[in-house]
Give the backbone structure.
Amino acid sequence: FLALLIGAGGSLLVLLFKKSIVWIHEGISWISLHLPASSIWGWMIFTPVAGGLLVGAMQHFVLRKERHHGVAAIMEAVALAGGRLPYLQAPAKIVAAAVSLGSGASVGPEDPSVQIGANLGSMVGQVFKMSDQRTRVLVATGAAAGIATAFNAPIAGVFFALELILGEYSTSAFGMMILGSVGAAVVSRST
């Protein structure tokens, strides 16, 4: 049940994240269409710079310093901290990633998608005070759901999570990741 919940919930959050990128980009495009023609070139240069400055300010003032970022931080938490991620930081990270991508950063939504799912799995494990092993599997399940939603590839999500996040193969972990990843794929394909 938890695997399906994390898969479906992670997929909905990733889809909302992707939609927020589109909303930010469309808002910026709408503003640029209503500017005088002489200022469009300046606006094209200013937009990514402003997005970068906003994300930098969020990183400096809101987000705590991390030794590793993205998938490396998830791998470190699974290996050394029982899968316990600072999930309260996730909303600020997601907003920063959406602003960065919406304002023209040259990266993709895949890494934040993995972080969304992994943080959801970690949150469930921590809130319900599950063992380290179970929390690690929930983190990997969320990461698999993130990949399944980002790439529309549920099986690839499972193997990504098994190889990179968990680093070990077990039947129970494989089953949970399959359920979460397929649940994510069903949600993402139905919306």
Q: What stands out?
A: The mean pLDDT is 92. The radius of gyration is 18 Å.
